[in-house]
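Encode chain A's predicted structure.
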Amino acid sequence: MQNIDQNLLKLSWQLFDKNGTGSITSEEVALVLYSVGWTPTEKEGQEFGQSVADEHGNVSWDSFSRIFSQAPQLKADPEDTAKYLLAEAFRVYDKDENGLIPINDFRSILTTIGESLSYEEVDQLISLVPVNDQGKFRSVDFINMLLTKWK
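Encoded structure for chain A:
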């Protein structure tokens, strides 16, 4: 199995943990897998999600990351799938539907929701992409940076 950086996996996880509960649904598990470049079949994705879900159908980060590290059956996927799924995750935070994400919103999401990152970690991520004079960055630039940095 290709080595996926845990930071990229965690960031993708946080983008799908929209309500900040520290868990996602078993159905969203496959989307997280796709977003980091793995393509289980639909059946494999469902089985994987169900295997790590609690009795309410929710999957915690700890359960997911432990099982993910033991999942050699997942196959590498073209970069386009990862780009598409990350873009879909960012779309939730693109209030103006213009591809621009406010830094303050992004920082708030990553430092308070789910398995939060530190302010320093978020600042490091943001420093890797251009920010406009309104304090926003293009989600596509951020996605490309992530996929380039963690190849």
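Residues 6-68 form a domain with the Recoverin; domain 1 fold (CATH 1.10.238.10).
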